[in-house]
Amino acid sequence: MPAAAMRMRRPMRTPMPRMIIRRTIMVIAITTITMTTVIAMTSIAITIIPTTIIPMLMTTNRAPPGDPCGKEDGEAAALYRLMTWLSPSFPVGAFSYSSGIEWAVEAGDVVDAASLRDWLASMLADGAGFCDAVLLAHAHRAASLRDDAALRDIAELAAALVSSRERQLETSAQGRAFIDIARAAWNGDGLEAMISGCGGTIVYPVAVGLVSAAHAIPLAPTMHAFLHALVSNWISAGARLIPLGQTDSQRVLALLEPVVVATGKRALGASLDDLGSATFRADLASMRHEAQYTRLFRS
C-alpha cells in the first residue's frame, strides 16, 4: 500500500481549541472559589452558634428581670405539692372509707356506672362535697389572713357539722393524718401556729385549706384539686363494691367533671350560711353502715 494512503488512514490528532481550555480553567476556578466560600461560611457559623444561640437557650428558663423569686418556679412547686398531697398514694387512709357508698350498694341504690354517677353527683353538689368545699375555702382564707379566731371557729363548725359517727371518724382521721404528714415532710412558716390556733379536731377539708394557705398555694387550684381527689376516692370505692372496670370508672370520672367544676365555683363564692345538705339518703347510708353485717370499708 502506498505510503500516502497509510498516512491518510491514521487517526488525525487535532489540538484542543483554546476556547475549551479557557472554559475548563474558569470552571475549576469557580469551583475552588465556591468551596472556599462554603468553608468560610461554615467557619463563621461555627463561630456564631456558641456566642449567640447557646447563651439564649441557657437563659430561656431563667426568671425575668422583674421576678427575682421566679414566678414559674413557684407555680411549679405549688402544683407539685397539690399533686402530692391529693394523690391517692398520699397516706391519709382515704381508701379505707366509702362515705356510705358501701351501704348504698348493698341496698340496691347503686348498681352500675350510671347509678354511681347519679349518687356521687348528688353527694358532690348537694351534700358532703359542697359542704367540705365551703369549709376548705373559709379555712384557707382565714389561715392566709392569719385570723386565728376565725380559723378556730371554722374548725369547730366543720367538726360539728358531720352527720354520723363513722363520717366523723372518716374526716377527722384523714385530717389528723394530713396534718401529721405535712408537719413531718412539708413543714412551712407559720404552719405550727395555725395548727395550734385551731384548738382541737381538724377535719380533712380544714386541714387541706390550712396547709395550702401556709404554703401560699392559691385557693382556686386547691379547691379543684381537693374535689377531684374526693370524687376519685368515691369512684374507687364504688368500683370495688359494684364492681366496675377501669374504663367504666374513668367514664364516671369524666361525666362528673362539669359537676366538680360547678361545685368548686359555687363553693368559692359561698358564705358559711350557705352550708347545708339535701342528700338525706346518703346521710342515712352513712348511719346505717355502722350496723351493716359485712363491710369492706370503715364508713
Protein architecture, described:
- The chain is globular and about 50 Å long.
- It has a domain at 98-291: Urease accessory protein UreF.
- Helices cover 70% and strands 0% of the residues.
- It has helices at residues 3-9, 18-58, 71-85, 101-107, 113-126, 128-144, 148-160, 165-185, 191-198, 204-214, 219-241, 246-255, 257-268, 280-288.
- The protein starts with a helix and ends in an 11-residue tail after the last helix.
- The chain has 299 residues and is mostly helical.
- Helix 5 packs parallel to helix 12 (246-255) and helix 6 (128-144) runs antiparallel to helix 7 (148-160).
What percentage of residues falls in helices of 4 or more residues? 55-70%
Distance between the termini: 126 Å
Say how many strands there are. 0
* Helix/sheet category: mainly alpha
Name some characteristics of this structure.
globular; 0% strand; disordered N terminus; Urease accessory protein UreF; single chain; 299 residues
Topology:
Blueprint (H helix, E strand, L loop, with lengths): L2 H7 L8 H41 L12 H15 L15 H7 L5 H14 L1 H17 L3 H13 L4 H21 L5 H8 L5 H11 L4 H23 L4 H10 L1 H12 L11 H9 L11
Short description:
The protein has helices at 3-9, 18-58, 71-85, 101-107, 113-126, 128-144, 148-160, 165-185, 191-198, 204-214, 219-241, 246-255, 257-268, 280-288. It has 299 residues and is mainly alpha-helical. The chain is globular and about 50 Å long.
